[in-house]
Design a protein that fits this description.
- It is globular, with a radius of gyration of 19 Å.
- The protein folds into two domains: 98 residues; 162 residues, Phosphatidylinositol 3-kinase Catalytic Subunit, Chain A, Domain 5.
- The protein contains ten helices and 13 strands.
- The chain is 33% helix and 24% strand.
- By secondary structure, it is α+β, with helices and mostly antiparallel strands.
- Strands 1-7-8-4-3-2 form a six-stranded mixed beta sheet, with helices on one face.
Length: 272
């Protein structure tokens, strides 16, 4: 697959910085970047524990979700899953990490949606009303639909961005990105996996919507839901192609069940 580099890459030269972990659990998400010519290349690791090392599989989730978004025709940041050797705090780790390039176009700058909304909102308008006034309702509906299908727990105001070009006076919502804290991200063991309810409406962060991914579907007009082509179950085989030996068949089985059952629920809503 073009989105997986299996040959071990020596990336021990990268310096990693910790980012806030908004999920409220222990651990850190480490990020790094390098500049190559006029390009900026970003890297991120799955959940890192200072004692146990890299314990999460959030980077694999990014690949699963981006493949799902390809099927749905939803614009997103492109990630590559890289088999890499990294060094964190003086220790070497072999892992799979995510690599991506900047999605800004020439002349654009980015700002978090949370900050942009705070500066530009009119009176007490909600983030949803604000997006409709800006003409971004399609972007928001696609985001809420995606976050329901994969149970994204972490759509805070900095995980949505606005791209602005001051010269042309244009602004747009950035493509969807950062879906690591989704699917079965908190299942560290097979026991956790066996106990996981794929349809459980867990509490989430959603800056535009509510703390319920299920209730956020009610914010999407049925006409918009009907505009999406139906997902065929066999298409999900593509979503997991090449990941069996990276995350394991048990995880793939549960994640596939989760996406399919959530799609079936959404499909019944749009056809009711």
């Amino acid at each position: 697959m073009e989105d997986i580099i299996r040959e071990l890459q020596d990336l021990r030269y990268l310096n990693w910085s910790r980012t806030r972990k908004s999920s409220g659990t222990a651990g850190s998400f480490l990020k790094s970047y390098e500049e190559s010519g006029n390009r900026k290349i970003y890297y991120k690791l799955s959940d890192f524990d200072s004692v146990k090392g890299i314990v999460g599989h959030e980077c694999i989730n990014e690949i699963i979700v981006q493949r799902l978004l390809n099927i749905l025709g939803i614009e997103h940041l492109n990630y590559i899953l890289v088999h890499a050797l990294v060094n964190v705090d003086g220790k070497d780790f072999e892992t799979y990490l995510c690599k991506s390039e900047d999605f800004k176009k020439a002349g654009e700058s980015k700002i978090s949606f949370e900050d942009y909304y705070a500066m530009e909102k009119e009176g007490n308008e909600s983030p949803m009303v604000f997006c409709k006034r800006k003409g971004w309702e399609k972007n928001v509906y696609e985001m809420l639909l995606t976050d329901y299908l994969v149970l994204n727990r972490d759509r805070h105001g900095a995980n949505i961005e606005v791209l602005r070009n001051s010269k042309s006076r244009t602004e747009r919502m950035a493509p969807l990105f950062d879906h690591g804290l989704s699917l079965v991200c908190r299942c560290r063991t097979l026991k956790d996996l066996a106990a996981f309810d794929v349809m459980d409406d867990k509490k989430i962060q959603s800056f535009v919507g509510s703390d319920s991914a299920e209730n956020n579907l009610k914010l999407i007009p049925k006409e918009f839901l009907k505009s999406f082509p139906a997902i065929e179950k066999k298409e999900l085989n593509f979503v997991f192609e090449g990941l069996e030996d990276i995350i394991g068949k048990d995880y793939i089985r549960v994640i596939k069940k989760m996406i399919w059952e959530r799609w079936c629920c959404l499909d019944s809503i749009r056809n009711s």
